[in-house]
Write a structure and sequence with these properties.
alpha+beta; 4-stranded mixed beta sheet; about 25% helix; globular
C-alpha cells in the first residue's frame, strides 16, 4: 500500500502555468471542475469521493488554483481565506478514512496550496501585498517584483530499532492509547540521517547509529511538509524522556505492532490511521 496523500491521477500541467492563453482556455472550459470545500475540509460526494462542482456555479470573483488535468479536463480549487494551522477538525479525520487514495492525494495538494497562499499574502522582502500568478502556483509582489513559490518543509519520522523492538511515543494531544513514530523538522545544515539521530536522542534519550530510508509522504496539515520515513539502529534501549515533547515512549515487539495495525482486541496500543505515514512505516517494519 502506498503512503497516504500520494498517487494523484491529475497531470499537474506545469506547461500551461506561464502560458496566459492556454490558462485562459482552461478557465473558459465548460468541463472544468471545482473542488468542493467547507472551509479547508473536503466536501464528499454521495458515493464517498471528493465532491466537484461545475465552473458555471462560480460567481466569477473567486481566485482559482489549477490542480491539474484529467483527460484534458481542468480541475481547480478556489482560494479560500482559512487558517488551518495545526488544528484539524474531527470531520477531516472521518473524511480521510472514506476518501479513495487518489482523491486524498488531490485534496492534500489543494489544502497545501491554500495554506501556502494564505501565509504568503505579503512579500517577505518588502512587506507589500502579493498577487497570485502562474495558475496559482506562485505569488508575485506588486511593489518589488519578488516572486514567491510554494515550498515544502522536510520532516523526518522514524522508528528506532533495538533487538527486534521498535520505539514509539505519544504526545499529550493524542487520543488515549494512541502511539506513533517520533518525528521532527530537519534543521539548516543537517542531513536526513543526522536529523533522525538528533530527534530520537532529543525526545527519548536513545542514541542511534545507522539510518535506513523507507519511504516518503506529503503531509498537508500545518503547511506543506514532506515526511521522510526511516528506521534507525539504536545502540541501547534506555529511555530518557523529554516531557516537553512526549508524554510517554515505549518499545514494542513486532507481534504487538501487528496486533495494533490489525486493531485486535486486547492490543497494547492504537496504531496511527492508515493515511498517516507512521502507519506505513510501522507496517513496513513489521513485515521487514
Amino acid at each position: 500500500m502506498n503512503p497516504g496523500f500520494t498517487g494523484s491521477p491529475l497531470d499537474r500541467a506545469d506547461r500551461v502555468r506561464n502560458d496566459a492563453e492556454a490558462y485562459g482556455a482552461l478557465l473558459g472550459d465548460w468541463r472544468a471542475r471545482i473542488l468542493g470545500l467547507n472551509g479547508l475540509d473536503p466536501l464528499l460526494a454521495s458515493e464517498g469521493g471528493l465532491l466537484w462542482h461545475s465552473i458555471a456555479e462560480l460567481t466569477g470573483s473567486e481566485e482559482l488554483i489549477l490542480l491539474g488535468l484529467s483527460d484534458g479536463k481542468p480541475h481547480f480549487v478556489p482560494l479560500v481565506e482559512a487558517d488551518g494551522g495545526m488544528f484539524r477538525s474531527p470531520a477531516i479525520w472521518r473524511a480521510l478514512t472514506m476518501l479513495p487514495a487518489e482523491d486524498a492525494a488531490i485534496y492534500g495538494t489543494a489544502r497545501s496550496l491554500i495554506e501556502w497562499h494564505n501565509s504568503h499574502r505579503f512579500c517577505g522582502k518588502c512587506g507589500s501585498v502579493t498577487e497570485m500568478f502562474r495558475a496559482g502556483w506562485g505569488r508575485k509582489c506588486g511593489n518589488c517584483g519578488k516572486e514567491h513559490f510554494p515550498r515544502t518543509d522536510p520532516v523526518v519520522i522514524m522508528l528506532a530499532e533495538y533487538e527486534g523492538r521498535a520505539l514509539l511515543g505519544r504526545q499529550s494531544r493524542f487520543p488515549p492509547g494512541n502511539y506513533s513514530a517520533l518525528a521532527g523538522f530537519l534543521e539548516p545544515g543537517e542531513s536526513i540521517e543526522e536529523a533522525v539521530r538528533r530527534e530520537i536522542h532529543e525526545e527519548a534519550g536513545v542514541t542511534c547509529g545507522a539510518v535506513r530510508y523507507v519511504t516518503s509522504q506529503p503531509w498537508p496539515f500545518g503547511g506543506a511538509q514532506l515526511m521522510i520515513a526511516c528506521v534507525a539502529d539504536a545502540k541501547d534501549d534506555a529511555i530518557t524522556l523529554d516531557t516537553d515533547e512526549l508524554e510517554d515512549a515505549m518499545w514494542v515487539t513486532k507481534e504487538e505492532a501487528q496486533a495494533a495495525l490489525a486493531n485486535e482486541e486486547g492490543r497494547r496500543f492504537n496504531a496511527p490511521p492508515p493515511f498517516a505515514i507512521a502507519h506505513s512505516l510501522l507496517k513496513h517494519w513489521v513485515t521487514a
